[in-house]
Amino acid sequence: MALLDELRELGSNVDEGLERFMGNAALYERMLRKLPDTVKKTDVGGAFANGELKEAEEQAHALKGATGNLSVTPLFEGYTKVVDLLRAGQADQAKAVYDGLIPVQEQVIACIERSE
Amino acid sequence: MTDMTILIVDDIEINRAILTEIFKDEYNIIEASNGVEAVEVLNGDTKISAMLLDLLMPEMDGLGVLREMNRSGQIKSIPVFLITAANSNEMLMEGYNLGAVDIISKPFAPHFLRSRINRVIELYRHRNELESIVAEQVEKLNRMNQSVIETLATVIEFRDCESGEHVKRISGLTNLLLTQVSNTYPEYYLPKAEIEKIALASVLHDVGKIAIPDGILNKPGRLTPEEFEIMKQHTVKGGEILQTIPEIMDAEIYEYSFDIARHHHERWDGRGYPDGLKGDETSIGAQVVAVADVYDALTSERVYKKAFDHDTAVKMIRNGECGTFNEKLLSAFAAVEDKIRRREWLAD
Question: Would the pTM of this model clear 0.80, i.e. be above it?
């Protein structure tokens, strides 16, 4: 199955994403393929484990921006919640949301990497 | 494609790629992945029409870039849009305070983004253009101001049968002396721009001579007491003439010219004319023109006298043969005497 269709099935708003890339599907896919790397450069889980909440917030914030722009909706919504909870000082709830997000994120990354 | 360039600053390549895609058909695009790179581009040769700036970045963040642009003054001519995934109102507020024009929130909405940014770029282009037109007009006005004043001064000289150089010398000497006085005595300090205005205004010091009859103005011999009383009136007449044309001059230059025309024959001990002002009742500008005028009169040939050499002229001024002057002014004169002797002030 084509990458965009698979991501749509995983809950991504692919039509909105295409629109953002001015209908340029090739560029959209090329940028989607950069997502795994972008994610791997961050370590939100490690930051949580070390109690570096500011760092966790900044990394979650960056991922929220990138996934939002790629319209990978489940990740965008998840990271939005993580950032909001961290800003509200609710670190435990933020960590719980993040933990719930990991399998979804792995699924999305696997799907993108498979398509290469 | 226009010749306009947008600078996109974001550490996440995905975000830069989308923005580039949105704007690449209408603008040249330069990408920077942190604040330091952005500042390098801003300091480079390419004229930037707008900047899209992420706030959270390694090296130097968005606020750092804005601070740098405030320092360099670029914030006035380049519109900056902050890129953000919302949330931190404090940071956005600080961004606005540092001069950002608007906020772009992630995820981007291309069509709105395009029209908003196009509109602001057009607005800034228009404003920058207007500013340069205004600056050109001001420059033109200043030149006209100066030429009106110089024309008036030349008319006076014609009547006075002088070479045409007298007013130029007075202006140069006034500038030199006033600069020295201002640099030496804090109580007489004047900014350079003011000194230049006073030097320009000094060329009109004898404008009142237009109203003095030829027979007296160009009389080869000594004036009778009655004639001298009429001659003295050139100070009052000068003020009156300038009062009839204030609107053709810059307001400040008008004030200075009026003051100088009326008071350049006042003396420190109150024995000058027309108002018998004492000491610093006469402005420092008019005091300086008075000394410059006396020195130039002494060292020039006139219908009623030969020219004295520099040393004789200085001695005569020192001895009070031409009335008394402010001691500080005479010290300043002595300090730049070599330049005056060499006529250096005429150089420019």
Answer: no
